[in-house]
Amino acid sequence: MAICPECESALDFEEEDVDEGDVIVCDECGTEFEVVGTEPLELTKVEEDYDEDDEEEVEEEEEEE
Ligand SMILES: [Zn+2]
User: Fold this and answer.
1) pTM of the full predicted structure?
2) Which of the residues 4, 33, 35, 57 has the least number of beta carbons within 10 Å of its own beta carbon?
3) What spacing in Å lies between the alpha carbon of 4 and ligand 1's midpoint?
4) Ligand 1 centroid to residue 21 C-alpha, Å
5) Beta partners for 33?
6) Closest Cα partner for 24 from 47, 46, 48?
7) Second-level CATH architecture of 15-64
8) Contacts of 13 (CB under 8 A, 6+ apart)
9) Can you spell out the DSSP letters for 37-61?
10) Distance 46 CA to ligand 1 centre (A)
11) Ordered per-residue pLDDT tens for the chain, 65 residues
């Protein structure tokens, strides 16, 4: 049984049933983990990257006549 590294509760899945690239979601804290290896089982936390470069600057051009 794998343990969630974030909240230390048991992750409810069978190690035999997962493959590399599968995503496991912790029922307790909602953190997502990607399976990066199966022998031995290795999980990596899925970080959501917020790209803050993507800000849209709203420039209103006022047309005055
Ligand atoms: Zn957790």
Assistant:
1) 0.67
2) 57
3) 5
4) 19
5) 24, 45
6) 46
7) Single Sheet (2.20)
8) 2, 24
9) EETTEEEEE-PPP--GGGPPP--PP
10) 12
11) 788 989 999 998 888 899 999 999 999 999 999 999 999 999 999 987 766 676 677 777 788 77
